[in-house]
Design brief:
49% of the residues lie in helices and 15% in strands. The protein is built from 15 helices and 15 strands. By secondary structure, the chain is of the alpha+beta class. The chain has four domains: 150 residues, no CATH class; 159 residues, no CATH class; 52 residues, SH3 type barrels (Roll); 84 residues, 2-Layer Sandwich (Alpha-Beta Plaits). Helix 6 runs antiparallel to helix 7, helix 7 runs antiparallel to helix 8 and helix 8 packs antiparallel against helix 9.
Length: 546
Amino acid sequence: MTVLSYLRRFLLILLLATMTGIPALAQDAPANSTAPTIPADPFGRETPRSTVSGLIEALAKRDYNRAANYFDLPVQDDARVMDGASELARRLQVLLDSGGTLLPFARLSNEPAGRIDDDLPLDRELAGDLKGSTGDAPILLTHGSLNGRSVWRISHDTIRQLMAVPATKVAAPSTDAVVGIDVAGAPAEDWALLIGIAALSFVILRLIAAAALAVMRRGITDPDANAVYRFFHAALPPLSLFIAVMAFYTWAERLQVAIVARQTLLRYAGGVAAIALVWFGLRLVDAVADVAIARMHRRSRRQAVSVVTLLRRAAKILLLVFSIVAVLDTFGIDVTTGIAALGIGGIALALGAQKTVENLVGSVTVIADRPVQVGDFCRVGDVVGTVEDVGIRSTRIRTNDRTIVTIPNGDFSSRQIENFAKRDRFLFAPKIYIEYTSPDKIREAVAIIEDVLLSNENISKDGPRARFNNFGESALEIEVFSYIALSDFGESTTVRQDLLLSIYERLSAAGITIAVPTRTLFLAPKPPIADQDGPVAHSSAPPENS
């Protein structure tokens, strides 16, 4: 018999003994003793994902002694078991390189308990498929306890399959064979083949997408205004990348390349797929927002522009957060702990970000209440100008001096806001002062002013009037009340000017003078100076010197 035959028999006997039960070597600790702290597993076998990742790292370094620890065998108790398990690890790598597959990184459970929604027992987890002498066989992981730790290792069923493979299929390479250049534990040509397939798939799909867009553009009169064209223009580039990743998944599993290269690229291909989806989402959000904003402008619904802009920014932030989480997960960084920490520190975060939360709530209030819209001319506190943007944090106003004033939305929503753009008409209520004259002339002046108001087509007909109101200090006061039925400020100033000029001309033609503010002062005569010794002295001559 060959050495491999002896080894196979030994491992089979050992495996059967393990399955029937091995007496525990350690005694249970006293009930009243303090349980010692169990350190983390040095091989990282806490979850199915970490077990497969650790196994791939060991195979990449050809460290079969380390890879032996990922088999459900007592490799630390017997040197012969370690040698046998190392041979099993080498066989596993050969079979995986020859067409066997492992599940992609994202599909492996990262929970200590594994998946509970599959059809396997709770202590079993599917990790891939093995090409053996009897055809495809699942690579199973088993969950158990080792030195007080809960670990996942390659199950006895998979070990049997490895032992049953003929030696000729897993023979070690001859020492005379030409050894190629290895890069990160895999032949350089395997890396080149996989990367080339991925790049070629993307280039071909991108060219097809560009050709499809060119054909659509020729068949549409106004492509930029066409919603269907804008959708495909936004969707095809990222979808080309996503479909290329899916094609790479399909081709990579069929190629007989090193499992290290294949599994590594498939792992990071998942991150690329997530980025492609986020890229698609960002472009789709921009396309939908641009179409919506164009429609809102055509319908003069300027407030809706602010809503669409806010929703666009919020959607982009959520997509970027999703992409960051996906990329971190691809690199093996567990973000669930960080998310839980956010829940624990939520109160502290809210206290530290009161202004930010206040501004966010203020922006929602401004958009929901709609006191102003983008393009409105308004007064906010002591700031007068045109609203240019209502953002998530602040609102920007362009003043008449052409400066930009940025007001936080929390402050903006609490201020007194006067919106001049909402005026449907303008008040025309000047006070006209005429010189003191006869009552008939006063009545004539009032009639002239009312006639000017009624004869102007831009004056609202709901009760324009002129009334003699008061006797002023230097003039007679006539009060005017009416509305200019225009919504444009510039046009209203022109009508106001015409009205004032018409009133002035008609009053002047009637001999009624507009009063100029004057004041008459009456000075009393200087009282005479009384002499102390006699009558009033009328002489102002100075007394003689004594």
